[in-house]
């Protein structure tokens, strides 16, 4: 068996509450980068879908619980369509579409209101509009905006009202963007080294970020000022 480790789980269940879908990002040396679906009743692996020759970086379940979008280090995003199979109560998966939209690894994806946000090591965040095709299950993606950065983007997140987007780069820069205008509101060097993650507070007034430098930092969204910083002994993800 290949030596692989799971980086991320999707903690959303399907409508029956029996089949959570887990997205596994494998180490670079692992040959079978896969998306796995498990049954909470049997505690058994139900389906494993492999569609890339490189590691998966992120996955999310679209509204309706039948489609999963995965991003990969091979520069692509994959749309996986899950259909219920009532015989044995097992679900099966097949690759529905491939979105080639970046020139380097796709590091993180987010979704809201038929819009896909993709961050990449090609120094961009791209905003895509998703619309169904005549076939019903397939989806068509149009590029709406491109948020340019000077270096590789490692993470992105949306606030709870989906009006702001935060991006974190491999050189420690945090950028806060206005989603409606695709314009940057604040840009600051927040960490020394890669920003591993960043997230808005529920009221969108503050931003928490973690990085390779081992710091937790809190930024005031309105002013762009760092208002709190706490050091740890190890990098925080």
UniProtKB/TrEMBL annotation:
Annotated Pfam families: WD40
Transmembrane intervals: none
Domain of life from the UniProt record: Eukaryota
Record-linked SUPFAM superfamilies: WD40 repeat-like
Key words of the record: Repeat, WD repeat
WD repeats mapped onto the chain: 99-128, 146-187, 188-229
Gene3D superfamilies: YVTN repeat-like/Quinoprotein amine dehydrogenase
Protein name listed in UniProt: Uncharacterized protein
């Amino acid at each position: 068996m290949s030596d692989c480790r799971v980086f991320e789980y999707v903690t959303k269940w399907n409508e029956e509450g029996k089949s959570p879908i887990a997205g596994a990002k494998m180490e670079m040396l692992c040959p079978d980068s896969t998306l796995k679906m498990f049954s909470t009743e049997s505690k058994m692996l139900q389906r494993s879908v492999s569609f890339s020759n490189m590691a998966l970086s992120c996955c999310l379940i679209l509204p309706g619980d039948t489609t999963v979008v995965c991003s990969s280090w091979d520069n692509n995003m994959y749309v996986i369509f899950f259909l219920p199979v009532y015989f044995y109560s097992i679900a099966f998966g097949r690759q529905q579409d491939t979105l080639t939209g970046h020139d380097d690894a796709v590091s993180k994806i987010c979704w809201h209101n038929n819009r896909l946000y993709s961050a990449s090591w090609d120094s961009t965040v791209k905003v895509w509009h998703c619309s169904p095709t005549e076939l019903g299950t397939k989806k068509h993606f149009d590029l709406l905006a491109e948020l340019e950065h000077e270096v590789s983007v490692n993470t992105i997140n949306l606030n709870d009202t989906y009006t702001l987007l935060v991006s974190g780069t491999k050189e420690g820069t945090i950028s806060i963007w206005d989603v409606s205008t695709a314009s940057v509101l604040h840009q600051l060097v927040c960490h020394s080294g890669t920003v591993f993650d960043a997230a808005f507070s529920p009221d969108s007034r503050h931003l928490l970020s973690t990085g390779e430098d081992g710091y937790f930092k809190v930024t005031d969204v309105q002013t762009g000022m760092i208002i709190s910083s706490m050091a740890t002994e190890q990098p925080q993800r």
